[in-house]
Write a structure and sequence with these properties.
The chain is of the alpha/beta class. It has eleven helices and 15 strands. It has helices spanning 19-28, 34-45, 59-68, 140-155, 176-187, 211-215, 229-235, 238-241, 244-258, 276-285, 311-323; strands at residues 12-13, 69-70, 76-81, 87-92, 98-105, 110-113, 117-118, 136-137, 163-166, 199-203, 219-223, 262-268, 291-297, 328-330, 368-370.
Length: 377
Amino acid sequence: MQNLEPGMPQPLNFYSFTLEGLEKFLKQYGKEKFRAQQIFKWVYEQRVTDFDQMLNLSKDLRAELKNLITFNLPPIVKHLVSVDGTQKFLFDVRDGNSIEAVVIPSDDRLTLCVSSEIGCNMACQFCFTGKQKLKRRLDTYEIVGQFMQVQDILNKSGLKLSNIVFMGMGEPLDNCEAVFGAIDVIHSPWGVNLSRKKITVSTSGLIPEMWRVADAKVRLAVSLNGYNDEVRSLVMPINKKYPLADLLEECKSYYRATGDKITMEYVLLKGVTDQLDHAKQLVKLLRDVPCKINLIPFNEHPGSGFERPSDETVQAFHTECMRLGAQVLLRRTMGRDIYAACGQLTTKVNRPETMDISNSKIGGNNARSFSSGQPGL
Ligand code: SF4
């Protein structure tokens, strides 16, 4: 959240404000508290972001607020559409940096995967973002902004985002203040008004901050990717600091607090995590953790040292987990041709925009590219 002290550099960005925060801010300038509610209605219900059009505010107040508050959002500089309907949006977040957000369609939902940081310090070995050191943590408005910018574009086609997952670039629990500030805005009735059950925070396992996910009463996903400490430490260095036993205990605490099962993300890496014996060890490891397992076949990216298992191996792993009684889902790879799939996001456009997946089961490479503002959704 933003510093609300008068005298600080102005203007502030509206999309970082909570209702309470804006009320306090206006009070410091001698304005009535209820004005905050009026402004929130204009912005999140009417999508009016020009004070001159907020006609229930006095002319003088509108003129004053224009100098105090801005509605600027990171511009979309690239929009790619995959053959499977996945859409990737590239945002300019200043200083030559960009972040990516991805819209993933499925039968009954339209999910937005947002970024929380530019780069990431967690260095997960299967992840393209993890190869790019943390440059900056995003502000609340830059996270809310990804949602609002994409929703504004989808509005033109009568579509509505139904879910949001914090699984894009960055470790969300490494940027708690901005992430949970954004969740407050996205969940609250005065903001976007999305149910808590439609919001998921994914972590690589930053145990000291995981209580916050339960506290916010949103869904928890854990990037597991290993069936024992040795393998997990190889794939995810954070495991050396926060080993599996502690991580799984924390998951159980989350379940006790919320009653919600945890989603365990498990990337299938050829020869590393994809063997039948690995499936056995994985199911055994999670035996007493209330969870569902999400299997994700590895998605290639330039310079990755891992390989994607064959479809047959993936299928066999899935079948074995089910045979052993696990609740397990094989995630259909989405957006791979536009580098929008899990683990493929980057802070720079330093690779081809699209990848030829013509031999893949998800279809040929007919990905489309749009500049900002163009329809095509
Ligand atoms: S998987 Fe997530 S936490 Fe791990 S390096 Fe990539 S962005 Fe960071």
